[in-house]
DUF4255 domain-containing protein (Streptomyces kebangsaanensis), 235 residues
Amino acid sequence: MIHEVDEGMRRLLGESGLEASGVEVVFDAPTRDWASRRNAPTVCVFLYDIREDTTRRGSGAGEVYDADGHVVARRTPPRWFDLTYLVTAWASRPQDEHRLLSQVLACLVATDTLPARLLTGTLAELGLTVGLDTAGAGLDAPAASDVWSALGGELKASLGVRVRAPLAGVSTAVAPPVTEGLVVRSATRGEDGEAVAGRRLRYPETGDAGADGFTGPRERPAAPARRRRRGDRQP
């Protein structure tokens, strides 16, 4: 799921025109060594915190259907996680970095979700909303100054971006669908006391059911002839 969120973020920023203008979007840790090797305008989207939103944890299991509408598996509810990114701009001059960061900010605040067309893998399969919160004051994550200290770099302008995304639950395969139908046999007797053959209930899809959903008794195959053994007497 994490790499799918990364791809959604990359596509969203790509639509803002960054890649078309020659700006590279990367997900590296902006360490001092990395910064010294940078030689082109870059927007760095660094994931530094992952936390589960336990208030949205569900229970039970849902059904998974195939293209024909048959239940093929049961899946536990998804679990939701907050992914927090530190977004920075890197260029040769501070003015250029601020221009890039402004372009990124305008792109991210224009939507509060990752558009469905940009989602891939399990995120697209689940069809759930992936929330996006940019530069929010209530981000429950380490402070930017602590992140820069841990990276060994100098503090610079950055955006805090939180993505709330679902992690698909565990799927368990179920037995294949019933195709033979339910067989109902009765042991009734007619007015003369003779036994009356039972009726078999069949699904309409089998093609042998009547208008009332029943069909006549099925003929049983004749028992195989008994083989004579040595020592048996002739009749």
Remarks:
- Residues 211-216 have pLDDT under 50 and may be disordered.
